[in-house]
Amino acid sequence: MESLKEYTKEEINNLEAFKSEIEKVPKTFRLIKLSDYEYGLSSNGKKDHRIIVKEERDKSKVREYSKNGKNYWYCSKCKSSAFLKFKYGILFAAIQHGNGCETKEYSFAKKIQSLLKQGKFNEAHGDVTPTNFEDMFIIFGFIIIGLSLVSMCINVVQLKLKNLFEELLMTILEEYGASQGEGGIIDAEEIREKSWFN
Ligand SMILES: [Zn+2]
Hints:
Blueprint: H1 15-23, E1 29-32, E2 37-40, E3 50-54, E4 61-67, E5 73-75, E6 84-87, E7 90-94, E8 104-105, H2 106-117, H3 121-124, H4 133-179, H5 188-197
Antiparallel strand pairs: 1-7, 2-3, 3-4, 4-5, 4-8, 6-7
The structure holds zinc ion.
Zinc ion is lined by residues 75, 77-78, 80, 97, 101.
Keywords: Membrane, Transmembrane, Transmembrane helix
Transmembrane segments: 136-157
């Protein structure tokens, strides 16, 4: 430990007691420097109800912890409360979390914090709502393109069906003509004219 002041703001008078307490902390925990964690707002905007802890090797990655009503901290991702503790004002964090618990980008955590500070809770929780006129215009454009594509598809299908029915009709009429024994295939145009003029 380089300097205790890097880890705690508390004055430690009884160094022996301090050492024996620290030695009780399992080896699965690491000490976090004051410069490697910060307090923030909880998801509902409560001050100092979140701690953002930088990872040991990659400082661009963090884990976030939230405070529950009983004043203990749990991991915001895997919800375990066994991974963070304070002793003598020193923060200890578990090196390993449960399966499926992932770190976040520090920049992302900061972005969420700034949204929470502005009171934009919905955005901080990941709801995308168009906030400016330009966005709404773009979304409107997408809707129009989508609708025109759908109507184009319907038109194509309609044309195909029309052709199919015409062909079918012609085939039926030709067969009909042949069975009438008029000697050969009747011209489709001729049939059309006949049916219009009688
Ligand atoms: Zn976790």
